[in-house]
Amino acid sequence: MISATPTLHYLALGDSYTIGEAVAAHERWPAGLVQRLRSAGVVIDDPRIVATTGWTTDELAQGMDAASLAPVYGLVTLQIGVNNQYRGRTASDYRQQFATLLARAIMLAGSHAAHVVVVSIPDWGVTRFALEQDRDRARIATELDAYNAIARDETRRSGARFVDITGISRAHPELVADDGLHPSAAQYALWVAAIEPMVRVALR
């Protein structure tokens, strides 16, 4: 008798980008990722999303505490930090808190670091919102680059995987939702196209 392929459980950790602020639930990038994986024959649950618009690294940690998460997850994605930058927090604080979140993500993946995929922070400084608010777009870009460098460094050190979608956000500033700030469904689809190959590697 051939046993059925076990269902892969997926946990998505983050903030407004993960929860898909200003787009429909099926247009969130974790939902799009699941759709693509299913099309490729992967047996995977709908994503368990622990994310809220506005969350910083410490607030995500608190949200994880409250969520009563039950490992093991076969896939964990982590995208966090934009609100740390938005609130003017230091890069050193981000490194410490991000590293702790990443370690928790790996634990939730059954200590399989390769099953954890970190997604970079997009550049909100290129959006219509930032332009209309007369924000210092160069400073935003520089600070986010520093945050993303930290995330990439900590991810590689841990053995997890890193996907850079920041370039997509900068190449397509027109692909934003009606609020002028968050990505549109079309931009999220581009993210999924970049994220899915790395996830496929992680699941081998």
Summarize the structure.
It contains nine helices and five strands, in the order βααβαβααβααβαα.
Can you describe what's shown?
By secondary structure, this protein is α/β, with parallel strands linked by helices. The chain has one domain (10-202): 3-Layer(aba) Sandwich (Rossmann fold), CATH 3.40.50. Helices cover 49% and strands 10% of the residues. It is built from nine helices and five strands, in the order E-H-H-E-H-E-H-H-E-H-H-E-H-H. The chain has helices at residues 16-19, 29-39, 57-66, 82-86, 91-108, 128-132, 137-158, 166-171, 185-202, and strands at 10-14, 48-51, 75-78, 116-119, 161-163. It has a five-stranded parallel β-sheet with strand order 2-1-3-4-5, sandwiched between helices. Helix 5 crosses helix 7. It is globular. The mean pLDDT is 96.
- Secondary-structure element series: EHHEHEHHEHHEHH
Mean pLDDT: 96
Terminal Cα separation, in Å? Answer: 24 Å
Number of helices: 9
* Count of DSSP strands: 5
Specify Rg, calculated over alpha carbons. 16 Å
Low-confidence stretches: none
> Which strand order spans the largest sheet, edge to edge or round the barrel?
2-1-3-4-5
CATH class: Alpha Beta
Q: What proportion strand? A: 5-15%
Structural class, from secondary structure content? alpha/beta
Share of residues in helices:
40-55%
3D shape: globular
Question: What kind of sheet is the major sheet?
Answer: 5 strands, parallel
Features:
204 residues, Rossmann fold, five-stranded parallel sheet, 9 helices, globular
